[in-house]
Amino acid sequence: MEPSYAFGRLREDEIGPYPDRKDIDCGYLQGRGLEIAWARSKVDVFFAHVQGAARLRYPDGSLKRITYAAKAGHPFSAIGRLLIDRREIDPATVSMQSIRAWLTQNPAKVDGVLWHNRSYIFFREAEVADTELGPIAAAKVPLLPGRSLAVDRLIHTFGFPFFVHAPTLTHLDDGRPFARTLLALDTGSAIVGPARGDIFTGSGAHAGDQAGTIRHDADFFILIPKAVSVRFGR
Known about the structure:
Layout: E1 9-11, E2 14-16, H1 21-25, H2 42-51, E3 53-57, E4 63-71, H3 79-85, H4 96-105, H5 110-116, E5 121-125, E6 148-150, E7 161-166, E8 178-186, E9 198-199, H6 205-212, E10 219-222, H7 226-230
Parallel strand pairs: 6-8
Antiparallel strand pairs: 1-2, 3-4, 4-5, 6-9, 7-8, 7-10
């Protein structure tokens, strides 16, 4: 197994990886009754995996939430980077929207591109009484739109407040540079490094459009009690 694998499965006397996205899409788990729901679009399912949570609208109009339960253990590989490397998308304009548009325009290539990201996420149903709140985060509490931050769990601790300043990120605050205090409440396979974060913008199409275009440079400041800062000589 590759060094980046955090866990694997024991088969006889050998430890190996779990099935990846291609294996599962091609029927590895078929017939086990593990499905929560069926979706109209495999691309929608893929981006639910990337986000780690989703809201499901059923044919009878009812709305339910699903959230992260487990993963197959393979490293996350960004399909946006793949399309840039193949010169299919301009790196200056890459976003969730441009990736979706490319997938829509190239249906015959969808499977191959999605399978590039071997990471596969499993979900569980999650009841959230207040529909204005977000899904249950890795910190076991609902995400609050505009005030919740996903961070690298190997570096940061859930519950810490961060002040994030991103001068070029203006479309979240009516043209004003983004400058907010957020709580570290979630994490994700693609969020790696001390100053890498993902802002939860909310649920629904508009929030998704906002989130899909955030890829801005930002300054991260961890807010800690004065008594703690003394230990660091400040």
